[in-house]
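The authors assume throughout that readers already know how a fold can be written as discrete tokens. Each protein is reduced to its one-letter sequence and a matching series of backbone shape codes. I therefore recommend that a typical entry be quoted early in the introduction. For illustration, here is how one protein appears when written out as sequence plus structure tokens:
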Amino acid sequence: SIAVPGQTVGVASFSGTVVAAEGARSLGAGSVVTLTREEVRWNDQTRSRFSTITAANGGFSFNGIPAGTYLVCAARPETEDYVDYCAWTLTPPRVVLRAGTATANFRIALEKGVRVDVAVEDPDGVLRNYSAARKRALLKVHVTSNAVPPNAMQFSKATLGRMEYSLTVPRRAAMRVAAIIEEGADLARAGEPPGLAKRSEAEELVLPPGLERRAVVFRLHAKKK
């Protein structure tokens, strides 16, 4: 559990369990549960965000939280392929915590998603050459959906020949993955020759029922002179 020091007036407590959406079984220890105040005035001196980690039974508790309305989020370790509870929804659950009261038995159900493995290959050393010339080049990989907020990953290391990133996306949403290079380097789909290089490349992700993993590969090429 988590307690807020120095808070004695106008506080509440909140507790519950993180479970799997399939079967409603407890997910055990390791879930990160976060409360974020829905509205905080610019001169509000109280803290606006609180986090804790679930115990072995999947339970969590917050004590001494300032009263107010909070958004409730939960996430599992990335290796477990559960969808981040708040990264992919416009309407996270809300809870109203009233001063002097205890809200208990709140259940957060996390669903299994599809693991998307994004690989970016750099056979021509595009990013490495930028680094050698002391120029800034940033590779950005974006995974977005029209139905949910964007989840963006950024690769900033310029010395690697191959960069990989994985994330879990909801099964019900159609996704689009795109790779973009800043400051002029070009990008092509894997297998295309350098002469067909493009500024950026995108691919629609088809996520049929039963799919567990989906791989996407992009390849960087130096500009054709």
User: Anything to note?
Assistant: The chain has a mean pLDDT of 80. The longest strand covers residues 11-20. The radius of gyration is 22 Å.
